[in-house]
Amino acid sequence: MLNKIIFIIFQILGIYTITFMLLHFIPGDPIQVMLGDSASIADQDKLRSHLGLDKPILNQLTSSLFKIVQGDFGTSIIGQTPVLNSLVIAAKNTYLLAITSLLIALIFGLAGGIIAAKNHMLLIDKIIMSASIFFISIPHFFLGPLLIIIFSIWLGWLPVNGMDGLHAIILPAITLALGMIAVITKLTRNCMLELIESDVVRTARAKGLNEWAVLIQHTFRLVLIPIISIIGMQFGSLLSGAVITETIFSWNGLGMLLVESIQTRDYPITQACIFIIAISYILINMITDLIYRFVDPRVKVEKFA
Amino acid sequence: MGFIISYLLNLDSNFMKLDEILSRPSLDAFFGRDDYGRSILVRLIEGFKNSTEIIIVVSIISCTFGVLIGTISGYLGGKFDRAVSFVINLFMSFPGILLAIAFAAMLSPGKYNLILALSIGGWVGYARLSRGQTLLVKNYDFVKASRAMGASGWWVIGRHILPSLTTPLLVEATYALAGLIIAEASLSFLGLGLQAPEASWGGMMRDSVRYLLVSPHYAIFVGISIMSIVYCINSTGDYLHRYWNIKSDQNASS
Known about the structure:
The structure holds 2 protein chains of 2 kinds.
Chain A: H1 2-25, H2 30-35, H3 41-50, H4 57-69, H5 83-118, H6 123-137, H7 140-154, H8 170-197, H9 199-206, H10 211-249, H11 254-263, H12 267-295, H13 297-304
Chain B: H1 2-15, H2 40-76, H3 78-92, H4 98-106, H5 111-138, H6 141-148, H7 153-189, H8 201-210, H9 216-244
């Protein structure tokens, strides 16, 4: 357990190094990349000392690290405001979107998977499975505009983009969720099919329980276990999909912040965004890993054996 | 079936001469015209040519680099392997295309930088796969026998390990290919990849989003094209996976 924590700390340090060394990995002078070739020497020197790039590298890394631990991610070059402020607002919005998508995906995915498994080989099952494969192949940057065309332009039900009002979250959340729904449905269906054949269900039926109890109370809980283990990875694709989706829907989250900062060459924000996204990813993975260990009854038995 | 469609499209792009005319958007050409009056179909085909070029180069680079590191690391074991595993894990902590976006952001946009960025994001998948396979095969009896007979490390890697890699590698490469198409399109969509006026599916997607209200056909055709290619490649991958009955990735811990 302690080993794991130490490992994660090293991982975080590694991510930090990669993220904040990005500017240095590229060939050429980072300052020139930021300002372009036509900037005057005086401007270049000013930016250089502002960003602390004139100090030796190890110095830069350690001083940045200390500042980050205190919450100082530097100052935005364009806005002259602390990066932390924009970061916090953006992070809240992105997590809001992510959690909403996750909930939608779980509800529809689990339901879809159970329905498909229950009606194995019937028409409904085939429809659901084909739809799954279909939705996995749709890239976010197409699904988003497609949903906009259908629901905002043709039907006028939902706003095109932006963040005002409760409806604004629906389209981006669905865009992100659809791919996950497909994955969760496939997994749920396959797991349930396996379980239905297995001893667990036979025991429950032998006990004389009605179909509902068998399906939901016993099988369902077991199916949740592998689902939890893939939520971690799905969250990853959620985060990276959010970059595109937020840009399409003008949702002021980390993704959009990242893209804007890249376009304006505001590198302190870019680095901070990448860092936070990566850290979120591994933290969520760690949490789901812990939950998984708790929930899997086989693991519990091992501990007490 | 996916292969056939891809092959057909490839033939086409080699024959067509690409003329870009300035005229109003309308539904003249097969898929309509874009905001500069260029035929969307023609641009899609040229974009396919560009994307294919990039994807093949990236695949070759990531594959070579990844497999090399993966097999050597798996074979040698010990501290070197632990260090390499750590680096692989590190790269995998960045979800999806985040790493590619990060590098593409730092480098100036363009074709070769795009290739570099995608390769940096891509090699880990191959490395992880080769390392897993290597660890697996390393303990097979025929390998042990070979080494007992005095075969050198390189010989074992070349004659025993690498051939066992080919089938899972091919399947992984297929999925990676689909991912690369989406990645390249996403990067171009964000403005980090191929630049105008070069045709790129991601770039076309981005331009088309601006005209959703006026001419949705632009976005729809581009989107459907991308989707079809990805679907075909994924189906091919699934088929190969089942045909060769690949066991799922067994990450043997050393």
